[in-house]
Each structure stands twice: as C-alpha cells, then as structure tokens.
Amino acid sequence: MTAAHHALQQYGKQAVKADLSTASPHRIISLLLDKAITELLAARLCITNKAIEAKAIRLNNTLDIITALQLHLDMSQGGEIAPTLNKLYDYIQRSLLTINKENNVNHLDEIVTLLREIKLGWKDIG
Asked: Class of 24-125 per CATH?
C-alpha cells in the first residue's frame, strides 16, 4: 500500500467519524445500509476472484451491520415497518451464511437489491 493510499484511507475513516458524530439516527442507519451494500459488492468481487478469506471478512462485516440494524429496531414505535424489517433482516442474515458457503453471486445480488430497496424506503421516511 502506498503512502498516498494509506493517507486516503485515513482521511476516509476520519470523514466517516466526523459524519457519525453529528449525524441523526436516521442518517446513521442510512450510512450503515450504504456500508452493507459496499461490503457486499466487495464480497462479490472476492467471489469472482476466488479470494475466499477476503470474501468471508466482507460477508461477516455485512452480517455485523445487519445484526446491529436488527437489534436496534424499535418494535414498540416502528408500526408495521419494524416487524417487516425484522423478517427481512433475518432473511438477509441467513442468506449471508448461505452465500458464504456456496459462493453464489446471484443470491448475493438479490441481497444487494433488497438492501437498496430498504435504503430507498428509508430515504423516503426521512
């Protein structure tokens, strides 16, 4: 890794930290959904390039994000949306385990599409 690449990574991390420190809960969820999608797209490349260890790391990162989103659902104030998201997050978690085992990019693409739809819906709520 070049010094410039490392500096860019550090800048990116600092920018994200600054954004998170001032972000509303709505914005934080949006950022987490973005990160989950980014991780899945990277996992897809890893599958294509047969980078199995890197793929597992990316899928685990995504699993951590989805788990955090699911744990922070407010079932008492979330109306009909919270239970629906809970079911979707459960499906995504199970799918990530299957994708990790089978290296199925079509299934991975389905999950990316689901997360993009959730993100669009979340954007509309905000």
From this structure: mainly alpha
